[in-house]
């Protein structure tokens, strides 16, 4: 969950977040297993825009031999550069603080956070310099420029991403190779396309971004999460509300 959502008193996680967490972990594990072979000690990854670390908590529960450096400008760390919580290390910037400035990561993750950076190419290049050779960079992004709406402006998104242009952007950065990409959540794509086409208000009160009124154990949450999981599995070659891209550091 994004830090601004936490600050607005969000209680329940949207089925979209629950489904995305499960689906991308399953997808990315196939690639991360290749990194893990032959490496000594715990793998270290950086998650830029980690928010309340829900994704990382789920991921670390599955992979106990891993450490995360969670980066988010919303963290209140007082006068500390970094806050260590066992295998989780929270910081506001991986470049400005001595404690993390010299660390090189086995892989990096950016989940719906690149769209907030004014110069996305420059930030990817900088982040890539912190990933070890042979390491991976994982991205999930809001998809399709034609779906840009008042909702994007409200949450602070500067852009949405089309698959071909994003592959070209990433492949054009020295040392990066795109090894996988796909759209996901076709059903949500159709909903957003309808909203944009007919100028439907997505968040008329502009109070929340992904509000949901039902608990994770609710039957409504379970049904929608199940639909999205099936959508993810079947929609590999269809348009989607989100875009996934995986790059390898040469």
Which percent range fits the helix content?
25-40%
Number of domains: 1
Q: Give the low-confidence spans.
A: none
Separation, N- and C-terminal Cα atoms: 32 Å
Work out the number of β strands. 8
Instruction: Give the averaged pLDDT, no decimals.
Output: 91
Summarize the structure.
Helices cover 37% and strands 22% of the residues. The chain is an alpha/beta fold and 250 residues long. An 8-stranded mixed beta sheet has the order 3-4-2-1-5-6-8-7, with helices on both faces.
Question: What would your notes on this structure say?
Answer:
The protein has about 250 residues and is of the alpha/beta class. The protein has a single domain (about 5-250), classed as Rossmann fold, CATH 3.40.50. The chain has nine helices and eight strands. The chain has helices at about 5, 15-35, 55-60, 100, 120-130, 150-155, 165-170, 185-195, 220-235; strands at about 45-50, 65-70, 80-85, 90, 105-110, 130-140, 175-185, 240-250. It has an eight-stranded mixed β-sheet, with helices on both faces. Helix 2 packs across helix 9. The mean pLDDT is about 90.
Describe the structure using short key phrases.
globular; 250 residues; eight-stranded mixed sheet
List the helices and strands and how they pair.
Elements: H1 3-7, H2 15-36, E1 43-48, H3 54-62, E2 66-71, E3 82-85, E4 88-91, H4 98-101, E5 105-111, H5 120-128, E6 131-142, H6 150-155, H7 163-171, E7 176-184, H8 186-197, H9 219-234, E8 242-249
Parallel strand pairs: 1-2, 1-5, 2-4, 5-6
Antiparallel strand pairs: 3-4, 6-8, 7-8
């Amino acid at each position: 969950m994004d830090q601004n959502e936490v600050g607005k008193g969000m209680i329940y996680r949207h089925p979209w977040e629950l489904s995305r967490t499960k689906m991308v972990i399953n997808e990315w594990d196939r690639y991360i297993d290749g990194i893990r072979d032959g490496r000594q000690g715990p793998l270290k990854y950086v998650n830029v825009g980690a928010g309340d670390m829900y994704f990382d908590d789920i991921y670390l529960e599955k992979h106990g031999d891993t450490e995360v450096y969670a980066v988010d400008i919303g963290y209140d760390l007082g006068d500390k550069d970094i806050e260590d919580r066992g295998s989780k290390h929270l910081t506001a910037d991986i470049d400005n603080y001595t404690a993390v400035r010299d660390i090189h990561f086995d892989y990096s993750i950016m989940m719906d956070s690149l769209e907030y950076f004014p110069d996305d190419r420059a930030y990817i290049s900088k982040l890539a310099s912190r990933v070890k050779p042979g390491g991976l960079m994982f991205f999930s992004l809001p998809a399709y420029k034609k779906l840009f709406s008042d909702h994007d402006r409200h949450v602070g998104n500067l852009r949405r991403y089309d698959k071909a242009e994003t592959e070209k952007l990433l492949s054009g950065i020295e040392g990066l190779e795109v090894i996988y990409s796909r759209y996901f959540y076709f059903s949500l794509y159709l909903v957003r396309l309808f909203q944009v086409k007919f100028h439907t208000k997505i968040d008329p009160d502009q109070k929340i971004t992904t509000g949901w009124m039902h608990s994770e154990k609710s039957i409504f949450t379970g049904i929608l999460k199940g639909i999205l999981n099936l959508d993810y599995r079947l929609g590999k070659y269809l348009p989607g509300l989100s875009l996934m891209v995986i790059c390898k550091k040469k």
